[in-house]
């Protein structure tokens, strides 16, 4: 059973006021809202109507006085069968495009964007071709940023679409021959105003390339507004069907229908499917189907629509925002942090999102400005204001001569260098030597009146020598021993010297 609420009598009827406030609270608590909109939400944008004395129909009729077309005939696919009706259609669309360019989005469009910003919008579906949703920040299904260029993929990236344009986009053009898609420019509008469609640049380029190769030229197609007419398939029909199936599987908890009379067959089917999904998965304050329009819905919607809000969509959305802020003020709070580089000025900076994952709070260290940490082979961005920062001075604690340094690698170490001393080496690696006592040179000069050579140090490294060499070595050693004994006796040294005696075995 549909409950009708008149938004214009909220100040006099307390029951209606409570019901509308309850709807606003339900929207604030919902998490997956599907919005379906029609031409009614764009009435306050500044677009002139069609049927007034200075409307678009009268403007087109002044250029084509002999044409007999009804309003529906201008949006029927059969108009391309006749040259006059085709020229009238192009002129009408050019004037409509110029009027839309001068208009601005309505508060209802901004309300839908607010739902998306707050994370409550599952998807928006619109019958409008004006593209106001994209102006407020909702990426449409005809946007350039959702186009797929690779083969074997869909025409658009369905995950990136926030607003599904069920009837196309007047700001884009499509070739009747090759189906190439282009953005509508002022040059295109000048051609359309005269009733002549512009040529397709893609077809012309291919044809000129063939002529340059002395081949037969190809047929060049013409451009038309990328809008979907009656009895005409949607170019993105498969992709839109996939988006709808995905949204139905996400269990929406509220359906908002605004500014449409629900007369188009395709839209009626879409609304009934979403309403059934909302009623099937009731949870919390959701599970409601709300219809906002001046005229009430037909009898076929009695068990589909729960609430009918009679009135303007702009006024109702403003009331929802007001009640929402009162019921849940935490949804509208913006956390800010004051940061200052001196004691006199402050600025608002973005609040940190949180601590890095996988690192406990005790691991956080303060790093001087201009330095950055490296973790996992990736360096964080350097502070752009860290210019001319003095280096950090390294101080050595008292009592320590120098800080220990790591030893060199074996490939960079000198042949005789070692970071171990002889006491720490293993016995096999120690450098052993036999030191022989010697007389100072000045004293030896007093005895022999000539300088003497210092005693050489004989290493204990074994050598392979024969018997004759052994005898010569022993003779030299004994002669050196006798000389040292004589010198010791002459200067009165102690005779108990421990001198080695070399014996040849």
Topology:
Layout: E1 3-6, H1 14-29, E2 33-37, H2 56-63, H3 83-102, H4 107-117, E3 121-126, H5 132-135, E4 163-165, E5 168-175, E6 181-183, H6 186-193, H7 201-212, E7 223-227, H8 237-249, E8 254-258, H9 265-280, E9 288-292, E10 307-310, H10 313-327, E11 337-339, E12 347-349, E13 374-375, E14 378-379, E15 433-434, H11 441-448, E16 458-459, H12 467-491
Parallel strand pairs: 1-10, 2-3, 2-8, 3-4, 8-9, 9-10
Antiparallel strand pairs: 5-6, 5-7, 11-12, 13-14, 15-16
Helix pairs in contact: 1-10, 2-3, 3-6
Overall pLDDT: 78
The global form is elongated
Which stretches are poorly predicted, pLDDT < 50 over at least 5 residues? Answer: 350-380, 451-461, 493-499
Number of helices: 12
Give a quick account of the main beta sheet: strands, pairing sense, barrel closure.
Answer: 7 strands, parallel
| Neighbour order of strands in the largest sheet | 1-10-9-8-2-3-4
| Number of DSSP-assigned strands | 16
Strand content: 5-15%
Radius of gyration over all CA atoms, rounded: 47 Å
CA-CA gap between termini: 127 Å
Question: Secondary-structure element order, as H and E?
Answer: EHEHHHEHEEEHHEHEHEEHEEEEEHEH
